[in-house]
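User: quick one, fold this
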Amino acid sequence: QVQLVESGGGLVQAGGSLRLSCAASGLTFSTFAVGWFRQAPGKEREFVAAISWTGASIDIADSVKGRFTISRDNAKNTGYLQMNSLKPEDTAVYYCAATLHYVTSDDYDYWGQGTQVTVSS
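Assistant:
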């Protein structure tokens, strides 16, 4: 059974930082691309970042480019999203996802339950 479990969300002031983790089990993590998405209240889910299984390919949404960094540690079966210079508009539920085929759409095979990130002004 595949499981993706996000952690690291919380409440932070504008300008602060958070590091989200995505712990994977039940799959050969090193062969899956990892993506991060977010959904704010009343809005559609949007792409944030993706990283290929080797880390050779990375895509970051323009809205967070220069502030967010995606990485992975295949030895730990974990993906990460480092979020710096957070803004109130970054407030959302953040989801990690995994897919065998690297994409920046939301066409992912497996999804986590999400972790809430709230940025206060």
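User: anything notable?
Assistant: The CA atoms of residues 33 and 52 lie 4 Å apart.
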